[in-house]
Amino acid sequence: MLGFGTADVANLLGMSPQRVRAFARSGFLHPGRDPRGAYRFSFQDLVLLRTAKALAQARIPAARVHRALRSLQRQLPADRPLSELRITADGDRVVVQDGDTAWLPESGQLTLDFAVSDLATQIASLARRRARTTGRREEPFDAEDWFDFGLELETSAPREAEEAYRRCLALTPDNAEALINLGRLVQTQGRVHEAEDYYRRARTARPDLAVAAFNLGTVLDEQQRRLEAADAYQAAVELEPGFPDAHFNLAGLYDQLGNTVAAFRHLRRYRQLTGRTGR
To answer: Residue 219's closest CA among 242, 243, 187, 189?
Structure first.
């Protein structure tokens, strides 16, 4: 998990270290410990602490604060970046907005409204300062920390996400997932040759990952290197026969290359996988 200590968290959130430690002992957080026994807080912990501060400032009784936060802790999504969330108040309810979906962890009267992406951006600034100290003292994050941090920052702070993935790769150069995510970030910025290099490195590190082959196909496709792109997409469907986007892209490429039989075969497979008559 991310290696934020008590002093960093207190400074970031405008809370006293004593208050941070009190919340850490309250039961709605599950911070880790470093070898010396000091608390190490994850990004999710910071989201909960930021919410706890807002609830406390609204003069909500402590028991109701803890009930609301325990409920929120259980319901925070584990399968997508928290930085896509907004936590607001609607009368006497906490409302968590996740894209077009809203859900309601139990709570009392509130006055809070903040985008988690704002917190992620603040943390990015802290991470940059901490990163500059690398080499002068112990590295605060390990490779997994930097990878997780990159995931959180992709939506709100893509430049910082790119730096986080680079930090991850400096520690684990063959981390295929970091290579793929970094490649995708630079590809969206038009840096196709750089993206191609990252995807090829990912293919070397994890030749079993269909997404690495697929992403390589997309960047070759962008460069009009159609035969190479078709080979990459073909590798993706051989690794994962039920990869609908790879079949769709192959259909388009084979149509451009004049191979109508192969184009129809992959388009039919795409439709079987998705239940669509088009895209």
So the answer is: 187
Sequence-distant (6+) residues with CB within 8 A of 201 are: 174, 179
Q: What are phi and psi of 93, to 5 degrees?
A: -125, 145
In tens, the pLDDT along 141-177 reads 788 878 877 876 776 678 878 988 998 999 999 999 9
Cα dist. 243→62, 229, 231, 237, 267 in Å?
A: 50, 15, 15, 6, 12
Kindly list the distances between the CA atom of residue 260 and the CA atoms of 78, 124, 209, 265, 271, in Å, as whole numbers in the listed order.
43, 49, 28, 8, 16
**Total-model pTM:** 0.62
58-66 mean pLDDT: 64
In this model, does residue 119 exceed pLDDT 70?
A: no
For residue 38 the two structure tokens come to 């000091």
What torsion do the CA atoms of 25, 27, 28, 29 make, to the nearest 10 degrees?
Answer: 50
- Residue 181 vs residues 98, 151, 166: alpha-carbon distances, Å: 22, 8, 10
E strand residue ranges, the chain: 32-33, 39-40, 85-90, 93-98, 101-103, 113-115
Three-state DSSP state, 10: helix
- pLDDT band at residue 126, thresholds of 50, 70 and 90? low
Position with higher pLDDT, 120 vs 272: 272
Q: How many helices (H) and strands (E) does the chain have?
A: 13, 6
Cβ(73)–Cβ(94) under 8 Å? no
Geometric angle at alpha carbon 30, from 29 and 34, rounded to 5°: 125
Give the pLDDT confidence score for residue 1 in this predicted structure. Answer: 45
| Residue 123 bridge partners (DSSP) | none
